[in-house]
Write a structure and sequence with these properties.
The complex is a heterodimer of chains A (330) and B (600). By secondary structure, chain A is an all-alpha fold. Chain A has 14 helices and two strands, in the order H-H-H-H-E-E-H-H-H-H-H-H-H-H-H-H. Chain A has a two-stranded antiparallel sheet. Chain B is α+β, with helices and mostly antiparallel strands and 600 residues long. In chain B, strands 11, 12, 13, 14, 18 and 19 form a six-stranded antiparallel beta sheet that branches. In chain B, strands 1-10-9-8 form a four-stranded mixed beta sheet, covered by helices on one side. In chain B, strands 4-5-7-6 form a four-stranded antiparallel beta sheet, with helices on one face. In chain B, helix 1 packs antiparallel against helix 15 (463-473). Chain B is globular. Classes of the chains: A mainly alpha (330), B alpha+beta (600). At the A-B interface, strand 2 and helix 12 of A face helix 9, helix 11 and helix 14 of B.
Chain lengths: 330, 600
């Protein structure tokens, strides 16, 4: 089943049959058929399905955070002190406090994942952290993909000197460890969410560009591109309407797998206190590690959230790569 | 209105806020925890067991501003300085303000209220270490004279110095009318007016005496190589955020003093290594139990309690910390906070107990903080007694008291036409400020006053805040309130707690406060030599600040706890950084069972 030959009805311009993405999605839309295909896919790729399910759950949690969180992420809880004794003269004990912070309490019905050292509900913080992690991840990848794909297409399409110069620049960019660049950026620029997104997006550009360029190198030699040139299509038109759609599979895989990487990078920066204030899994993990003995749930659950998200995106990305790459489908 | 230079000083003072949490120190070497004075031990016992390098985790290796002992306002730096340099006088017990002579041969003679005759010890020499000989051969081994004392004081009050804005003690020395070197060992100081805290000025944490040759042409000595003093230890190595290594000064002038009969030949230790706290309780616990360190504190109080219960041979050091959490870089003379009712409403709305519990989480049953008034609670000589403070509006934690405070706060906010929101700049470092303190303060203000604080977080710590302060200090009001939230240094004398902050011309008066009644009281305490009467004036000032001014918003100060092995004798803890000279009294009791297994 070749993607190039499948779509006879779309785009509607001079080259209707030549520019369908290599996804096999051009067949007649049949709900029952699609469902059956999805089911078959799910059976064939159980780990990928699990990844997608987790991603869907995380997305749902992120979208419904105000409801799903139960409490505000910064709300701290107190409880009556059973040892309250206003006549006590031991100021170094809590006896004189009628209320004490409900800090480091174990998971319970009131606090599903327990409370942290500041008496805040860990579940609510993880839920709000999901929103932040996914939001930052998607936004950063949008930056990486937009710029990286554009550069990759231009580089691969034109080749020659343009390709050489651009790829050497990408080589240089990739020579630096991403975390180092991010730490430098965090030190050099104001710590705002916008800057964080731009920095995370920037470090992903080289990889996206490389992968897209590789794909473009194979596409540009195909007959439909040649045909486009013959009938006078401009370079821009060929790149935007014919090459870009055919790199969609690659971009989807990069997006899925890259999201896990970006989430991990954001968590790393938060762990190092190099991100703007806000509820963040990395920051939770960092503050929780000091209480690993007396209240392990602080570090464990935030660490699990990071692990789960990264794992889910990697599983889904792996499966998508298998599905979308014709060579691996054989 | 404050002059710009004063505003600069107040802005720079923001840098003094110290970014350490409750863990990591308190193992018995300053920064809190334990007795303030060493315990006397028989001479023979100490003298027979000299040697060894004391190792502990703490914050001493944190070098954030400058090495210059007269310019730094950064608490941890005082620790190294206090081991390396000497002062005319020193504090044996800062909580009770007990002093003794250091470089001086005895306490200064005071023929009248304006005159101090300081007689220095004979034969005091600057460090003669290899490092000193290599870097400053002219200083190495040179004898200290009255000229050095005169220079050290005049340096800080020199109006022509390019560094004049950084000498935050300059205001102290302004009281001096004449500084006369009578002979190599005698200095006569005449003050313009009677100055009750003058002896404190000579004993204060950074009243160090330095050699002129160590100061460069730009009037700085911002280099670890220039850390050459006359103290009990010389600086062997300093690696920022890793360690401070100090070694025994065999020529120390006080080596044979034997205070309280502890023995001659001090320092008893070969030296000490102050290791940067790795901020990981597991690492610190492992290092302590294997005796790779002799003492440490923990971030988690529960760890302290557990290790103490599980492991024999350890001693708990526990004491109050004078360094305090507050908000002070704001302008009470600019709207909306110009209205006292609004300031009082905020004061009442703040739940200090909850802030303390959040910032300094304790072990079950144990607190790791106490709420503070204008003078920090460990400074018992001057502070409002804790039981009294905790009954005052704004400090009450019982449900009944808190409800009353909240009700009054709401009334005052409404009566004063309090805004629904205002913009405020907060310090962005250390990270627990934006991540813990700021959300909690915002939540409390929203809950009690319906006030939404639109925050701007200063990622640099205090630079943006200081700039905003300067812009607004010049009669402007851009509607943004620089709102510091962090540690301030723990002071000793009453004067330091109140005068610089609240006097019209005070160097830390970032409130733009000008209150004639308060100024009169502040000047009165400075002129009062009778200790009892001065204490009464101190209480009056604190009452007035809490009832009629409410400029600085004081929250709480940590209780520091740490563990040390029992073989560490004459362990000490002060209320704040800057007492490492007391390491000179410390020694290892090798006959103690806990010493077994300690690596060399």
């Amino acid at each position: 089943m070749s993607g190039q030959a499948s779509g006879a009805s779309t785009i509607g311009h001079e080259l209707p049959v030549l520019s369908q993405p290599d996804t096999g999605a051009g067949e007649r839309l049949d709900t029952r058929g699609a469902a059956r295909k999805l089911l078959r896919l799910a059976v064939r790729k159980p780990l990928g399905t699990l990844g997608v399910a987790i991603i869907a759950a995380l997305a749902l949690v992120a979208v419904t955070a105000p409801i799903a969180s139960r409490y505000a992420p910064d709300e701290s809880f107190t409880r009556r002190n059973p040892g309250f004794d206003p006549t006590s003269t031991d100021y170094y004990r809590t006896d004189r406090n009628e209320f004490v912070l409900d800090a480091k309490s174990a998971p319970s019905m009131d606090h599903w994942l327990g409370t942290d050292d500041a008496g805040r509900d860990i579940w609510s913080r993880i839920v709000w952290g999901t929103r932040r992690s996914l939001g930052i991840g998607v936004a950063a990848l949008a930056v990486s993909l937009t710029i990286g794909a554009a550069l990759g297409i231009v580089s691969g399409y034109f080749g020659g000197l343009i390709d050489t110069v651009m790829q050497r620049f990408m080589d240089a960019l990739q020579a630096f460890p991403a975390l180092l660049i991010l730490i430098l950026a965090a030190s050099a620029f104001e710590l705002t969410l916008r800057n964080l997104v731009l920095a995370l997006g920037f470090v992903g550009i080289a990889q996206v560009s490389r992968l897209v360029r590789g794909k473009v190198l194979s596409i540009r030699a195909m007959p439909f591109i040649e045909a486009g040139r013959v009938i006078g299509a401009s370079d821009l038109r060929l790149m935007v309407f014919h090459i870009l759609p055919n790199t969609a599979g690659t971009i989807i895989v990069v997006f899925t797998m890259g999201l896990g990487t970006v989430i991990l990078a954001e968590a790393s920066l938060s762990f190092l206190a190099l991100t703007p204030p806000g509820v963040s899994w990395g920051q939770m993990l960092n503050s929780g590690r000091n209480f690993i003995n007396s209240s392990p749930w602080q570090a464990v659950f935030s660490g699990l959230a990071i692990t789960l998200a990264v794992l889910a995106f990697n599983l889904a990305g792996d499966a998508l790569r298998d599905v979308l790459d014709p060579r691996l489908r054989v | 209105m404050l002059a710009r230079s004063a505003a600069v000083a107040a802005g720079a003072a923001g840098l003094a806020l110290v970014g350490c949490d409750s863990g990591g120190d308190g193992g018995g070497n300053g920064g809190g925890g334990g007795e303030a004075t060493p315990t006397a031990v028989p001479q023979s016992e100490a003298a027979g067991t000299r040697g060894g390098v004391y190792r502990s985790f703490n914050f001493d290796a944190l070098a954030l501003d400058t090495f210059d002992p007269h310019q730094t306002q950064f608490g941890p730096m005082y620790s190294m300085h206090s081991a390396v340099f000497s002062k005319v006088l020193q504090y044996d017990d800062d909580a009770n303000e007990v002093m003794s002579a250091d470089l001086a041969a005895g306490m200064p003679e005071q023929p009248d209220e304006l005159t101090y005759i300081v007689k220095l010890r004979q034969g005091v020499t600057f460090h003669n270490s290899e490092r000193a000989q290599k870097n400053f051969p002219a200083v190495a081994g040179r004898e200290l004279t009255a000229e050095d004392v005169k220079y050290s004081i005049e340096r800080q009050s020199n109006p022509d110095s390019p560094q004049r804005a950084l000498y935050y003690r300059a205001e102290h020395w302004k009281t001096i009318d004449k500084l006369e070197v009578v002979d190599a060992q005698t200095l006569k100081i005449t003050t313009k007016t009677p100055t009750a805290p003058f002896l404190h000025y000579l004993a204060d944490r950074n009243a160090h005496i330095v050699a002129k040759e160590l100061v460069d042409a730009n009037d700085t000595m911002n280099s670890d190589a220039a850390m050459i003093g006359t103290g009990p230890f010389y600086l062997a190595d300093f690696k920022a955020v890793e360690y401070v290594k100090a070694r025994r000064n065999p020529d120390w002038f006080a080596r044979d003093d034997s205070p309280r009969g502890i023995g001659t030949g001090r320092p008893f230790l070969d030296g000490y290594d102050a290791l940067w706290t790795p901020q990981s309780d597991s690492t610190q616990e492992a290092a302590l139990l294997s005796r790779q360190v002799d003492a440490t504190g923990f971030a988690d109080e529960s760890t302290t309690r557990r290790v103490l219960a599980e492991q024999g041979g350890l001693v708990l050091n526990e004491s109050g910390t004078a360094g305090f959490l507050n908000s002070r870089m704001w302008m009470s003379e600019r709207s909306p906070l110009k209205d006292f009712r609004l300031r009082k409403a905020i004061h009442l709305a703040v739940d200090r107990e909850r802030i303390g519990q959040q910032m300094f989480p304790g072990a079950p049953g144990y607190k790791s903080y106490l709420v503070v008034g204008p003078v920090g609670y460990p400074i018992v000589r001057w502070a409002i007694p804790q039981n009294e403070l905790e009954q005052r509006p704004g400090y009450r934690s019982t449900k009944e008291g808190r409800d009353e405070d909240i009700a009054e706060a709401k009334q005052l906010w409404e009566a004063g036409g309090g805004p629904d929101s205002f913009k405020a700049i907060f310090a962005g470092v250390p990270d627990y400020i934006p991540n813990k303190a700021l959300p909690e303060l915002k939540r409390q203000m929203q809950e009690v006053l319906g006030l939404t604080i639109e925050e701007e977080v200063d990622p640099t710590g205090y630079n943006a805040m200081a700039q905003a302060f300067l812009r607004n200090a010049n009669d402007a009001n851009e509607g943004t309130i620089p709102f510091s939230y962090g540690y301030d240094n723990g002071w000793i004398d009453l004067d330091d707690w109140v005068y610089p902050y609240f006097h019209t011309g005070g160097t830390k008066n970032s409130f733009l406060l000008s209150d004639a009644t308060l100024d009169t009281k502040l000047e009165a305490q400075r002129a009062e030599f009778d200790a009892g009467r001065r204490r009464e004036i101190g209480y009056e000032i604190q009452d007035y600040l809490l009832e009629s001014v409410l400029a600085r918003l004081d929250y709480c100060a940590p209780i520091t706890r740490g563990l040390a092995w029992n073989y560490v004798r004459n362990s000490f803890s002060a209320t704040w950084f800057g007492s490492n000279f007391l390491f000179a009294n410390m020694w290892f009791d090798q006959s103690d069972a806990s010493y077994s297994g300690r690596p060399a």
